[in-house]
Design a protein that fits this description.
This protein is mainly alpha-helical and 496 residues long. The protein is built from 16 helices and 4 strands. A 4-stranded antiparallel beta sheet has the order 2-3-1-4.
């Protein structure tokens, strides 16, 4: 653009100079030189490097200012040269007249001045072109050649290992459990894979993952960063700041917010190190994603364990009450005791029938005053009393003072109450133990994981540097900068 503008300006100056020259020649050539009438031509000063367009007109219009020795009448207006004699063809062409010597000298001096001005303009243009070419060579060509030499022979090649994966599993399984211990955690299922993906992107670029990888991989050696304190732990070395700067320039993680696909790009100075670092990042990312639910799963396990302990404590108290009840009743099972009493009453009633028959026979044969009759009568009375006591115990009408043990209905009611409580507590313990087992299984299982559908492959060609492309980019950037500076300098020079 600068060359084009300078060429246009140069052509414009030349065109104006030639126009002024033609005007001067047109005014002086048709007019016949009259002897005794001097002609003056004003030449531009030679000190100026350029001939301004406005100076060409005064050089030609300076003729009326020059007057001959004889002054004409002031009232008379100067008449222009009449073209009538030129319109008529003379019978004989006039002989050419030789201009005066002083006019020839002035014309010659004018031509020399124009030639000098043209030479000065050409020299100025040549100097401007040389300066422009020198600046282009220094500002564009030399840096481009240096960059090409560095990229081709001095720069260290970098290898890129790329992996693509998505987060699967997450927290839906925890929120979908039907136990009351997991209902409190159902709100956590609102976390989506996109949220976990954004968390993973921030985690990979953080210092935490670098410190974890330092326990497995020597990142200082991989990225050519010398350690300041080799005897200390890698995580406490002051050079870890330089390592983090290299990590942020070598490792990049991007995520597609629509599909949730994460892309991991890892660069290293060797193909094997690129694969090693990429695989280490994937392993640490899997552990980190699984740790997102570790707190909730651990809380669930602790609550299930506490519930089991409480249920077992209630069961122990109930069993102690059962034992005290059995000791008090003197029987293992009140139902069996009631059945035994009923059987005993039946046997006693059979004996009572036999005694009554024997008593009737004794009274008939020996009378009421005989010893056998009185014995049978006493036995029958005691048997009836025993039967009455047992029946009263079975019916629940006997008082606590009349019998040693409680009535059968009371024992059965107390036993049924204790058995119902025992069954409920046993069921509670069973549910708590089942919840504890499920929580333990969930805590030991990998809840969330990374599904890598495009694992990193061993690169065989270095992705950096690309000598041709990088050199072309360098040239275009420098060329654009040079164009801006050159245009600004030209405009500044024209304004000055």
């Amino acid at each position: 653009m600068e060359k084009l503008d300078e060429a246009r300006a140069r052509e414009e100056r030349k065109r104006k100079a030639m126009k002024a020259k033609r005007q001067a020649q047109a005014k002086s050539a048709p007019r016949k030189a009259v002897p005794g009438e001097p002609v003056f031509v004003a030449a531009p000063p030679l000190a100026s490097a350029e001939l301004p367009p406005a100076q060409a007109v005064p050089a030609v219009q300076a003729k009326p200012a020059a007057k001959p020795a004889a002054k004409p009448n002031p009232a008379a207006k100067p008449k222009p040269a009449a073209p009538k004699p030129a319109a008529k063809a003379p019978d004989k062409a006039p002989a050419p007249q030789t201009p005066p010597p002083d006019l020839q000298a002035r014309l010659k001096s004018r031509q020399e001045a124009e030639a000098e001005i043209s030479a000065l303009l050409d020299a100025r243009e040549q100097r401007a072109r040389k300066r422009l070419g020198l600046s282009f060579f220094i500002a564009v060509i030399v840096p481009t050649l240096c960059a090409a030499f560095y990229l081709a022979f001095l720069s260290t090649p970098r290898f890129l290992a790329e992996a693509k994966f998505v987060v699967r599993g997450t927290l839906e399984l925890i929120g979908g459990e039907s136990t009351r211990f997991s209902r409190d955690l159902s709100g956590l299922s609102g976390l989506t894979n996109n949220q976990e993906g954004h968390i993973l992107v921030d985690h990979v670029m953080s210092q935490a993952v670098v410190e974890r990888l330092l326990n497995k991989i020597d990142l200082y050696a991989i990225y050519h960063i010398p350690r300041r304190t080799p005897d200390s732990a890698p995580q406490q070395d002051p050079a870890i700041e330089k390592l983090m700067a290299a990590w942020r320039s070598m490792v990049h993680v991007t995520m597609d917010s629509v599909t949730g696909i994460l892309t991991l790009d890892v660069q290293a100075y060797s193909a094997e190190n690129a694969i090693l670092v990429s695989q280490g990042i994937l392993d640490e990312s899997t552990a980190m994603v699984n740790e997102l639910t570790a707190r909730a799963r651990q809380d669930r396990l602790e609550r299930a364990t506490k519930e089991v302990e409480l249920a077992r404590a209630d069961l122990d108290n109930l069993l102690k009450q059962f034992e005290a009840f059995r000791n008090q009743q003197g029987t293992v099972d009140a139902n069996y005791s009631g059945l035994a009493l009923q059987g005993l009453v039946g046997l006693l009633r059979d004996q009572r029938v036999k005694l009554r028959a024997e008593l009737a026979t004794a009274r008939a044969s020996m009378g009421d005053d005989s010893a056998s009759t009185r014995t049978l009568s006493n036995r029958l009375e005691s048997l009836e009393k025993e039967i009455a006591d047992i029946e009263a115990q079975i019916d629940g009408t006997a008082s606590r003072d009349s019998v040693e043990r409680a009535a059968v209905p009371q024992s059965l009611a107390e036993q049924e109450k204790l058995e119902t409580q025992r069954n409920l507590v046993i069921e509670r313990v069973s549910r708590a133990e089942a919840s504890q087992s499920a929580a333990l299984s969930e805590s030991q299982r990998q809840q969330a994981f990374l599904m890598v559908f495009e694992p990193p492959f061993l690169p065989h060609i270095a992705t950096f540097p690309q000598v041709r492309l990088d050199t072309l980019i360098t040239f275009l950037v420098l060329f654009g900068f040079w164009c801006l500076v050159a245009t600004y300098a030209r405009n500044l020079r024209m304004h000055n």
